[in-house]
Design brief:
heterodimer, A: mainly alpha, MetI-like fold, 0% strand, flat, B: alpha/beta, Rossmann fold, 6-stranded mixed sheet, 4-stranded antiparallel sheet, globular, binds adenosine-5'-triphosphate, binds magnesium ion, membrane (chain B), transport (chain B), Ectoine_EhuA (chain B), ABC_transporter-like_CS (chain B)
Amino acid sequence: MMDVPWNDFYPLLWEGLKVTVEVAVLSALAALVLSLVIGLCRVSKFKTVRIISQICTEVFRGLPLLVLLFWVYFALPFLGVEFDKVTSAVVAIGLNYGAFGSEIVRSAILAVPNGQSEAARALNFSPLQRMIYIILPQAALRMLPPFGNLMIELIKGTSLIYFITLSDLTYQALILRNNFLSMTPYIFLLLLLIYFVLSSFVSVTVRLLERKLAAGRL
Amino acid sequence: MNATELEKAAGQEAPARTRKRQADTGVQPIVRYEHVSKSFGDLEVLHDINLDIAPGEKVAMIGPSGSGKTTLGRMLMTLEEPSGGMITVDGEPLWHMKSKGRLVKANEAHLHRMRGNIGMVFQHFNLFPHMSVLRNVTIGPRKVLGISAEEAHERAVTMLGKVGLGDKLDVYPSMLSGGQKQRVAIARALVMNPKIMVFDEVTSALDPELVGEVLEVIKEIAREGEMAMMLITHEMDFARDVADRVIFGAEGHIVEQGPPEQIFENPQSERLQSFLSRFRLS
Ligand SMILES: Nc1ncnc2c1ncn2[C@@H]1O[C@H](COP(=O)(O)OP(=O)(O)OP(=O)(O)O)[C@@H](O)[C@H]1O
Ligand SMILES: [Mg+2]
């Protein structure tokens, strides 16, 4: 067995991990908020709102994340809009995954049986109250598993941010590899493990949430 | 059957009679359908319906499947908009409102105000699965009527006690039998204190052995009185026991109506006779 200098790996990877987690958490929040907003617009009773939100979904879902990143970080400054690196990453990732998330929200809302909305109307709930107290809580349960998947995708997606020179986990691993070329498999093994732990964390959280939300219902 | 009998059988005179009687006693109907029609696409399923329901009156609606009974009730609950005619609730147009002296299509605010008079119990219960039994019954009073948590709780507990579910407050709907679910749904609608309540075949999704407990609860409520009821049902014995008036509809028309004794013992129209012959009355 080779002598692997593990202790030389950790500090750099730790720095990278912090960036990855920071960007992942912030873009996840952005994506969730966007999902909800666009998703609700997708089921609006106003046709214009529905159409505009659908265009948003199609555009930001259709663009490759990398192209979106380049646009936000390299192209927007020419139009007078300048973000720092982290913000650029959060905007691009938030838009891209938010667009996918809006589809999840929309279909989960539509999947709540019509009878629920009618019962709420018979009790004289306002349209807003129907959404808040009756539809969304039931839709939330259906959203959880696909949102779990989306968040795992998002974490993996953050590995692209080193293209706009953010020193995330992947970036640091590439640096390390330059310094310890013969250790390449070990470095990448470690990288793999860390991403795996991150996504497992999301899976477990989602499963716990699901159990909590479903309590008593089934 | 001669011509006048036929006309009588067709129920043409009955609404006029009811209206006259109400005019005599000065009682305004709680619900009035005037020339109401309803189409789904090209298909007209209700044709020129005229019907008055007096305050506190218990009206049973019977008739073959597809005759439009549910649609009639859903229009009253504002779940389905009439294609023509006018529905009036407690003297005010339901689907219309006055704007600059003209009657225009009602907006959400008007519908909201009017809906406060009306309640409905559905064939498939439609309980809120993410809420406990108690919460199912308190949420309406809390969020819609805006009454305090304590008072809502008190009212809900009383109501659930009345339907025999005082011991199921913290249970979720999925743990209940169909009959219990339907009784929760009845309590949920009752607690809002409507002036008229629509019961749309509330026992037809139940196992036969659970039908009785739900009908008993409804009979009890009917006995208490003030609330008018539109009871859409295939349970003829129940209709006869509870209703002040029975309305037989077919193919989107009211074919015959009258007190239960007349409808069940002395049906005039052939339609009703053949419809009833399919039920063996005890
Ligand atoms: N949303 C709808 N879209 C199209 N057609 C409808 C709709 N709702 C009802 N109909 C049609 O309207 C007619 C009357 O239906 P309705 O449900 O009111 O009858 P019903 O008397 O309640 O019958 P049942 O005893 O089977 O419940 C039927 O022909 C039905 O197919
Ligand atoms: Mg029906």
